């Protein structure tokens, strides 16, 4: 396609005519283009490319040519929507969202409702006939702009407070003005989103998940639709299958008269998806049908964000769903049984850490009977975590590094708490639902998590030793007795185990099956460091002990040409060998931020 202001190096219009590479437009932009090609209702959008991000991070300035391209793109959005950006009787507002090629949920920044100012707020009030809606939209923009672009703590807006005085308080705290000119709002926000790629939390997330630092993020600019317009409007998240259990039924939440940030931030606890079925039945039917279509097309479970405006459904993005370890196993095996994917693909969709989490200790039968329940909420990530409650992510990181087991307890988590979550044995929050930040990140980490326990319930436990049941949503006093599951007891795990034995380039024996000539590293202190293994196992046929069953140990065994290792359980090591030893073609999926 020839370069034009809408199809150039720095900017691409997302009109469904083509499907550019995710490496250029990011997962979110790719998702929008993909949904448009499926004929789904998606608000018009364009994307500023990862190449523009790279140029900005190198020079500290947006590319000079981007100004004209932005102007042309905003005119295109106006034509698509029949509205005008930042002025007129029917103003156009836009969202500005990050979107890397590889999913980094919650790690980078989003600002909604750009284009609102004193003039357009009045126009919205007249157009909607609702002063409260216009004021609410004005508030939402200034809160996000203040926090993300100006980097200040935004004071709460009083119910009857004058908006100009409130805005002046934000500007005083920031030492600079919030631009009235919508074009200035837009450029400043784009720069802020690009900067969020280098934020501390994003760097830590990439390091933890092995994501390259040089990918950069794209920025998606999209026409706003308003879930906060009235009681016939709302916002929600739908998973095409249950991301906690893997059960093949739709799973999600819906919040009336709200915008998407209300759900994902965890500041509000949404209702069940059935509420949408009651409030907007036609939109609900369209949503369920589209979820099935998107899952079938992509051969992956979908995580769909959507908005309903006055009964009309709009899709904002669809991506491969993060899931709990138990769900990962069930979904992989079920999709093979359904004929959707092959064995190699199914194996690739389950990683060693997920299986380790499934086989980690859990409460035994009857152990919780008579135990003191200190708090309860919504269990959003399976597993048992035992440790001392701390209420600050920095403290959690410090104490965990000193060798202490900690449970992170906060009112709600944000991306700034991820470093504490990475080292915690469990996470418990007072607010939020199953699609809140704590829930989504907890599931991805395989971290026992309980959310929505109620104000003041968990932060007050600071210093106490607790047992967190991430499946049943309970926090018990003290360290309760736990048991360890067996990898052959669950039929799906057993089936996965049989596949792994067939496809692994490395044989893995249980301890009672080990050949007599196995090299025993148990008593060798140096074998605890995977970096020492190549020298220690050189010339051996097989080995046991030390770090040999870790992912680094399995790689060392493969590189040294070992025939086998000894481990218990065996499945994590087998999966590590498969993941390290080959790269079968995996199914296409939508990964976006």
What does this structure look like?
This protein folds into four domains: about 210 residues, Dna Ligase, domain 1 (2-Layer Sandwich); about 90 residues, ATP-grasp fold, B domain (D-amino Acid Aminotransferase, Chain A, domain 1), CATH 3.30.470.20; about 120 residues, Phosphohistidine domain (Glucose Oxidase, domain 1, 3-Layer(bba) Sandwich); about 80 residues, no CATH class. The chain is about 40% helix and about 20% strand. The strands form six sheets. It has an eight-stranded mixed sheet with strand order 14-21-20-16-17-18-19-15. A hairpin with a 2-residue loop joins β11 and β12. α12 crosses α14.
Number of helical stretches of at least 4 residues: 21
CATH class of the largest domain: Alpha Beta
- Give the tally of structural domains: 4
The appropriate CATH architecture of the largest domain is 2-Layer Sandwich
